Amino acid sequence: MRCACGSDFRCEALEEGEDVRVFLRYHCEQCGFRLGIETDPRKASVFFDRPAWTDEAQHRLDRLPSYVEPLVRQEVEDYADRKSIKVVSTDLMTEAGNHGMVSWHPDAKRRLSRIPGPVRAMARVELERTAQDRGLSEVTVELIEEIKARYFGMAASGS
Ligand SMILES: [Zn+2]
Q1: If you write DSSP's letter for every residue of 138-152 in order, what string do you get?
Q2: Hey, what CATH class is 9-97 in?
Q3: Domain 103-152 adopts which CATH fold?
Q4: Which of 8, 25, 58, 114 stands the most exposed, by the fewest C-beta atoms within 10 Å?
Q5: CA 48, 11, 85: angle at the middle one, nearest 5?
Q6: Ligand 1: distance of its center to the CA of 3 in Å?
Q7: Taking the complete model, does pTM exceed 0.90, yes or no?
């Protein structure tokens, strides 16, 4: 994007606002002109030719262990690309995560199937969310044991 003075704007910040809106701040270093745009992530996509992470999403990405970060980045950017969205927000990260970022180890899946119905749905959501928070790509039996003990007060051994 180009300033009226002819030089290019520099994007200073891409922040998440309320109600899934994003706020873009531009600065022209040539003439000092500043410009702010508030819009939704989909509309903001026209301002970027490659994936742009909001400051909040970038922060979440930065907190991941270094061996997971490139995988998560790729996964989320692929998801954004499929939806033709250039602006990656924390909401989009979560959304992308819910579509394949966390898989189930076969043993964990078997274990889940033995949990009584009403609790199972809750347990699945909790487990996938915890795995995502920790940057794990898979729900394991170990994670189930841990969550069981923490949330459902069950013995951590056997079943
Ligand atoms: Zn300017």
Answers
A1: EE-HHHHHHHIIIII
A2: mainly alpha
A3: Helicase, Ruva Protein; domain 3 (1.10.8)
A4: 114
A5: 25
A6: 5
A7: no
